[in-house]
Known about the structure:
The protein is mainly α.
Amino acid sequence: MPFWWMVxxxxxxxxxxxxxxxLWLPFQAPxxxxxxxxxxxxxxxxxxxxFTYLKNTLVIAVLAAxxxxxxxxxxxxxxxxxxxxxxxxxxxxxxxxxxLPYQVTLIPxxxxxxxxxxxxxxxxxxxxxxxGGAFYIxxxxxxxxTIPQELTDAARIDGASEFRIYWxxxxxxxxxxxATVIVFEFLRAWRDFxxxxxxxxxxELYTLSLGLQQFRSEFDVEWxxxxxxxxxxxxxxxxxxxxxxxxxxxxxxxxxxxG
Length: 259
């Protein structure tokens, strides 16, 4: 229903948006809503630098997703498949970081990034994801533990190194979990509002989430164009899930099932 309301509002003229009772269906009140206003979409794209914000959002989302894809699987493999002393303690410390809300670490992180000179650039939104993420490490570790240990033991007997076992055996079997991690991180970065709001201070670097705020002014809100832009922003998320849904659901279902 919220999605339908967003699409319907994006096609209404201004008089129909404020109609009482609300209009849920096209041509429900012909005297007020006598046509679909497709012009709201090109107007919304022209009202803000939509394609610049789209490029910025794609760069951040793709690089962040690539970062967790590169950094998290090796750590998860080490914690799940290699019996080294203290791994359970380190895994517990990794999980403990999940109990810290983002708001608690917000100011210390901002001070660190300001010292590095990264404030005002997309780097604070990209680089941390190349250094691992506790949730994704946990998710992948649980999936790696479902892979029979006999596979890696047989590879070690044949003389395979740990890297070759990881690269040629574990990763090909972990495609559902890896797809889940990539989709999760892409969606998180795509819809992120607080991060860009804090670290991006130039309009040419804004993301789509920040761009939506520009449809609101002190005295008025361009609801039709705001809803049209929201529909355009939502479509890539639907497309990503549509193409990855089988792998995504399989990764969620199998993660944590030991056997």
